[in-house]
Amino acid sequence: MKLAAIAGLCISASVICRIFDKTSGEYSVMISAAATAAVTAVSLAALMPVVDFINELYGKIGADEEYINILYKTLGICYLTSAASGVCRDSGESSLASAVEGGGRTAIAVMSLPLFKEIISVVENLLQVG
To answer: What is the pLDDT of residues 70-81, one digit of tens each?
Structure first.
């Protein structure tokens, strides 16, 4: 991963945001959001080897593809929620940041329902056998 480039971008964006905070606060929020989007894009691109490894691993064990999709979607929700709440907090909207985090938690809970159903099914089968 290009950590030095990410750090440089974030430090530069932070300095520029501080400059604009004194004159035009709305530009500071836009710069912060743009830097967040750029860092997220670079980070997601760096995750591709991990995704390939997980796909290979799931292919070897023959697990249901639905579960890997749930994993990817929940990771995406986590990244998106974190980025959105950070931008909201930077713009001084703590209540919106909390709402985004709550929405992310709810989305993950809903997304995980098939996993919970499968776990309950396995436990029921184990109890019937035992």
So the answer is: 888 998 899 899
Query: For residue 125, what are the domain limits?
Result: 48-130
Going by pLDDT thresholds of 50, 70 and 90, the confidence category of residue 102 is: very high
State whether 68 and 120 are in the same domain.
yes
Contact 29, 87 (CB under 8 A): yes
pLDDT at position 109: 94
What phi, psi does 92 have (nearest 5°)? 85, 15
- Shared domain check, 54 and 29: no
Number of domains present in the structure of the chain = 2
| Euclidean distance between the first and the last CA atom of the chain, given in angstroms as a whole number | 49
pTM here is 0.70
CA distances from 95 to 36, 85, 98, 99, 108 (A): 20, 9, 5, 6, 20
Residue 82: how many CB atoms within 10 A of its CB?
15
Q: What is the DSSP letter of 108?
A: H
**Separation of alpha carbons 16 and 10, rounded Å:** 10
With bands split at pLDDT 50, 70 and 90, how would you rate the model's confidence at 1? low
